[in-house]
Amino acid sequence: MKKIITYGTYDLLHRGHINLLKRAKAMGDYLIVGLSSDEFNAIKHKKSFYAYEERKLVLEAIRYVDEVIPEHNWEQKERDIIDHGIDVFVMGDDWEGKFDHLADLCEVVYLPRTEGVSTTETKAHLRLTESSNVEFTE
Ligand code: C2G
């Protein structure tokens, strides 16, 4: 069984996330997602809309995802790859080069990001429309 792993926050899921998970799963038979904990998001200077348990519930419902484990820190990837017998580590290419050191343990693949969508942009758009609606109704 060819095992794949990828990591991320996966908040407010969109087609970019799904495209990544779909392509990652297509590279093997079993896909593990290292899901960033709320505490690790703070370290990444990210604040997710949904808490870890919600984001985990959603990810586990996706047909491409076989297992979700918590991502607590930057350093756990080596241990995860060894403990889970990972063959391929996959990330979107906004991370190009950042995890090349893992090539000692498994194949490292960076996949093209899906353009035109991001959780950050979605949240900014919602803030804008929300504030404009408030002005309109008043
Ligand atoms: N992604 C993508 N296209 C987008 C947005 C995201 O392909 N339009 C990919 C990212 O490249 C990443 C995955 O979807 O591989 C998850 O993205 P995030 O939830 O933003 O995760 P990130 O904050 O990049 O965390 O240790 C690694 C980090 O936990 C990665």
Summarize the structure.
This protein has helices at residues 15-26, 38-43, 52-60, 77-83, 119-137; strands at residues 3-8, 30-36, 67-71, 88-92, 107-111.
Structural description of this entry:
By secondary structure, this protein is α/β, with parallel strands linked by helices. It contains five helices and five strands; from the N terminus they run E-H-E-H-H-E-H-E-E-H. The protein has a five-stranded parallel sheet. Helix 1 links the parallel strand 1 and strand 2 (30-36). It starts with a strand and ends with a helix. The structure holds [cytidine-5'-phosphate] glycerylphosphoric acid ester. The site of [cytidine-5'-phosphate] glycerylphosphoric acid ester has 19 residues, from strand 1, helix 1 and strand 4.
Largest sheet: 5 strands, parallel
Uncertain parts: none
Q: Give me the secondary-structure category.
A: alpha/beta
Strand content: 15-25%
Radius of gyration: 16 Å
Q: Can you give the helix content as a percent range?
A: 25-40%
Count of extended strands: 5
Widest beta sheet: strand line-up: 3-2-1-4-5
Bound molecules: [cytidine-5'-phosphate] glycerylphosphoric acid ester
* Quaternary structure type: single chain
Our count of helices gives 5
